[in-house]
Amino acid sequence: MLGMLRSLLLAILCVSCLGPVSAPVPHYDLVVYGGTSGGVVAAVQAKRMGKSVLLIEPTQFLGGLSTGGLGATDIGNKAAIGGIAREFYRCIRKHYADDANWNWQKRGEFKGRGHRPNEDAAWTFEPHVATKIFDEFVREADVPVWFGERLDRSGGVTKVKGRIVTMRCESGRTVSAQVFLDATYEGDLLAAAGVSYRVGREGADEFGERYNSVCTKQAIKHQFTKRVDPWRVPGDPSSGLLPNVHNDGPGEEGSADHRVQAYCFRLCATDVPENRIPWPKPDDYRELDFEILLRNFEAGDLRKPWHPVRMPNRKTDSNNNFAFSTDYLGANYDYPDGDYATRERIIADHLRYTQGLMWTLANHERVPEVVRKHFSRFGLCKDEFQDSDHWPRQLYIREARRMVGEVVMTEAHCEKREVAEHVIGLAAYSMDSHNVQRYVDADGFCRNEGDVQIHGIKPYGIAYGSLTPKRAECTNLLVPVCMSSTHIAFGSIRMEPVFMVLGQSAATAAVMAVNAGCDVQDVDYAKLREKLLADAQVLEWGGK
Prior knowledge:
Radius of gyration: 25 Å
Distance between the termini: 85 Å
Number of strands: 22
CATH class of the domain at 27-200 and 400-534: Alpha Beta
């Protein structure tokens, strides 16, 4: 009896030495970090395949840019999109087939992409409709979601022998999994896991590319057509430069640099008076930020500087257009590797800039009257983004980190001069980069650089190896958004439907890695291909 009591006391002492007992770390077959469109589809696919899944989203909403204002789907040939991605766009069409969902115009009045007779999927939609469908996908698949949880980027990833074991959020919540999937626009999980990545543009020589790197000869679109003085006091360099223009030149033609293409908000606007909110003037409005715009008008460029694509119910998805528009050139270089505070500052700065831009276009006396009248017809939508003052919740992160994986997709793949092996999806959009900088040219006037638009791209295959890290760096991580590609190839791949396609394929591979107990690099491609085809993914292009 005395021996048993001594043993019990020793056990109690040992437990007390260990400190308080922590809650057990939950374990899943797959953890998806990032509730972007690709992340949602990945989580749904894994759950449909019978695996346990956790979706972690740093914000309070799902869908990323697809629910954040980008309702004019960019893809190229839409026959290249299958699987759950096409299921999503078919749900969009089904929603708008109901006359009850047309509040501000009649169904027959709208002729947008996918809304005509004999089409099976609709590619233009309102943000709240996309939100409803993604939420339904997650609810129907019974996917648990941690909202408002951000990765602790300072030691929040634990690895053992090249495998991620646990991921810890800033709140302290921790999770373990057999396989992890980084579906963020920023690539935070891959970076925290020690996986190689790039930010900026490769030099033209590295992969033999014509359209990567500093490329002034290509930058003829969204360009100044008039001479606009860049100095605060016109003609006086000693007065200093106007905001967001530099005097260091564009860089050597064909050289690599650190710059990323400009970000913007995709504006959901309306011209229906009953549903319209006038463009707000930000409290910290700075007229000097728009002096180049005003001088451009005064020089004779009377183009209306935005690209409003019509959405259902008399709304728009409005993008950047012409020399000075919603793209905030040069203001995002610190975003990809920036800490959370830096990113929040950059997002707030983009918000201030864009709100100030739209107010200026609609109200400033130096804006030509015809332009003011045009922009005054539009405003924010009362029935969209009601939890964020009717402003889009998602900044368009066109490009941030890009993983350096087992395979690097390049311009040669886009042009089919090189054919990808182990194809897990197709891309079909132009090689497209927005401008990355505004500088003073040799004649002393404003010039933009970085815009590349190479059209005529036919659907081409994306290699499975572009979703996997190098084996020596991590063996249980897949990356369908910040995947492995050069800057200019990513400019073609980086479309929301393709992110959904890659999310589904990555999740399918993750499930197979779990089932086989193997590294993600060792998934049997023949079996993966068979499953992808069975799930209606499009892996080959027949030319029609």
